Each structure stands twice: as C-alpha cells, then as structure tokens.
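Page 47, continued from p. 46.
Same chain as before, 308 aa.
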Amino acid sequence: MGFQTPQLLLLLLLLPLLVWVYQSRYGRGAASAYVLYPNLAPLAQVREPSWRRHLGAWLYLLALGLGIVALAKPQATVLIPDNLAGVMIAIDVSGSMRVSDIEPSRIEAAKKAAQSFVQALPQGVKVGLVSFGTHATLESPLVADHQKVIERIGLLQLDHRTAIGDGITESLKAFAVDDNHKPLGPATIVLLSDGRSNRGIDPLEAAKTAQKIGVKVHTIGLGKPLAAGEVPSYLAFDEEALRAIANITGGQYYPAESAAALQAAYHKLNQVVAWKPAYTEVSGLWGLLAGLVLASSLTISNLGRRVL
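Result:
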C-alpha cells in the first residue's frame, strides 16, 4: 500500500504526546463520575476494571490515527472487472453426460453450474459457449449479453463421442486476434469434461496452440477419474489429460465428483476470471473505519459517565 501525501503521516507522531497528556491528567485523579451532591462524593471513588475506564480513550486515539491515515490518501491494489476480457465456456455433451451419479444428471448439473458461473461474471465481460461431443459446435460467439448465453446453455443437447481437442480449438476461433494472432484482450477457456478424448484433435496439441497465442484454459473433471476405479472406464474422465491441459496453458484444474463440488469449482473460477488488478485510492474506506471507531469511542465514554 502507498500514499499520495505520505508527509501527513508525520502527524501520527503527535499520538504519543496525546497519550502522555491523557495519562498525566488521569494520574492527577480525574474522577470517573460527576458529583452534583457533596455528600455522595465517596461514591465517585467506586472502582471499575481498568480496561473499561480507558477503553473509550484508546478508541478515540485509534480513530485519530485512522483519520490521519485517511488524510494521507492511501492507495492499494484491488481487483476490478476487465471489460476487455473474453471467456469461452466449453462443455462436454457426450453420451456419458446423461448418467445420474451426479443428481439429477451430469448434464443438468453442468448446465446449472455453468449458468450460475455466467450470471456471476462482471457486467461488460464477453462470454461465449462451445459444446463438444462427436464434433465441436460454437453455440454462442463472445457477447456481452450474458442472459443469451445462459439461455443457450439450457438448450444443450447430448451427442455421442468426446472431442476435447476440438472443443479447445473451436473455442480459440471465437477470440478476436491482432496481426500477431494474439487475442485482443485477456482470453480464457473454461472446459468441462466427464470422459476421455476419443475423437478429433489431440487435446494436448490443442492446449499447446492455446498456450502459444496466450489463452489460458481452466479444466473441470466431472464425475470419477479413471484412477479411482469405482466406475466403468467409459464413465470416468481422464484426469491426467485435463490436468496437463491446464498446466500447459497456465490454468487451474478442478475435480468435481458432486454437484456441490462442481458449483464450488465454478465459484472459485469466478474469483480469478475476467478481473484485473488496479491501483486505486482507498481513503474512503479508512475514513469510514475512523468514523465507526470514533462513534464507538463516544458511545462508550457517554455510557461510562456517572452523575451523582
């Protein structure tokens, strides 16, 4: 964190002086109650816990410190939506997606989770959709209208085989590129599969192409991996291949053996996709915090006063 006017932080050096003044005043026997009737004066000496007597003062001091920091105009790096970003969602629609080991079925769970993912993307970010089975199909180009993509996800129909490499390649075609064949903005593919590639382009070769032009591919394995041995091989996904695709392109791999795990995977992706770091002033936050602490200090001080 940095500051636009760091010289104002020198005012923090005055706080120890205020502490000394407070302790000096309190040490001279400042009363914890106001005495209106002299015959009740002995009650003003009633003891209370030390921390309670000083809590209001320390909160007041903290509020001053926070206010000084706010005046120095602190700046911090925060994540903001990247309206130049493009996100392609690639969903496996092979026959195994009709299996109901993930309720109500793999395909319905995948649709619901993908729709939630699109709905949570920042406004202005372009999103598109590719389905892949025997072949890969562009269901929606990159558009800023997220509702259209959500509707198109709901209309996905099952196919037969699993062409993961074709799904990546078709997704890459959706990104606008410059003269060097690089995407015009941050480009990401979120690919979900529940099987092994048995058709079309080698997925790892497609991943290398994505890496070459700067497209990151995040992968989600739906169901049980081949190594688990708990389901027939034709119902298990190739975890090794999905993990390799993500590693090659700089993406992340997420296993999802349940609907809840699938939703969690998309939720994590929502935290990293289509956002960019920005250096911005956060003095308002510090000022708000100072105000809240000051209000607490005044409230505690008033409640602690006794009139006899």
